């Protein structure tokens, strides 16, 4: 399919809409099929640059792009910490309290990982209390140790150090 044509003045003009073809290649959100270990949803509350954000990356996300200062690193930090990673590996701060949004007492990140054997997503969560410089961890609402989150995330072929 030819997308451009030249007129007598050598101007290039589009013949059809790129968006039409592009949109037809993306499966609608309602029909998305998640594989075992795919991120279904991420919820940030008072975490770094986000006061509240809920995102559903979808089955085809494998890169996060955006202009400088838009929170790309915040997303990666949140995923790593919620899955049991240590702040030391992130190169941002060794203190967990530094990941709470400035001026807030607490922050949290929930990462929902699709589990095909259960037919639902499993919720990994970190809750950070700023003034205590401490964090609590849960899997599906049950309190766990940080090491247990790392172990459980490994069952989904996710490696966090």
From TrEMBL:
GO terms for cellular component: nucleus; Smc5-Smc6 complex. Residues 1-21 are annotated as: Disordered. Residues 41-146 form the Rad50/SbcC-type AAA domain. GO terms for molecular function: ATP hydrolysis activity; single-stranded DNA binding. It comes from the Eukaryota. The keyword Cell division does not apply. Residues 1-14 have a biased composition (Basic and acidic residues). GO terms for biological process: double-strand break repair via homologous recombination. SUPFAM superfamilies: P-loop containing nucleoside triphosphate hydrolases (SSF52540). Keywords: Coiled coil. Belongs to the SMC family. SMC5 subfamily. This is Structural maintenance of chromosomes protein 5. It comes from Meloidogyne enterolobii.
């Amino acid at each position: 399919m030819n997308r451009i044509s030249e007129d007598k003045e050598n101007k290039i003009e589009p013949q059809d809409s790129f968006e039409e073809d592009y949109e037809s290649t993306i499966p609608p959100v309602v029909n998305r099929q998640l594989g075992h270990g795919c991120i279904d949803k991420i919820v940030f509350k008072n975490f770094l640059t986000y006061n509240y954000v809920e995102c559903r990356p979808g089955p085809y996300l494998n890169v996060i792009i955006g202009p400088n200062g838009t929170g790309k690193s915040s997303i990666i930090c949140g995923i790593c910490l919620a899955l049991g990673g240590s702040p030391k590996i992130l190169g941002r701060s060794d203190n967990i309290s530094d990941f709470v949004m400035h001026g807030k007492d607490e922050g949290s990140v929930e990462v929902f990982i699709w589990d095909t054997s259960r037919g639902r997503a499993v919720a990994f969560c970190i809750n950070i209390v700023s003034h205590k410089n401490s964090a609590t961890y849960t899997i599906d609402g049950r309190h766990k140790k940080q090491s247990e989150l790392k172990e459980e995330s490994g069952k989904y072929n996710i490696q966090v150090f």
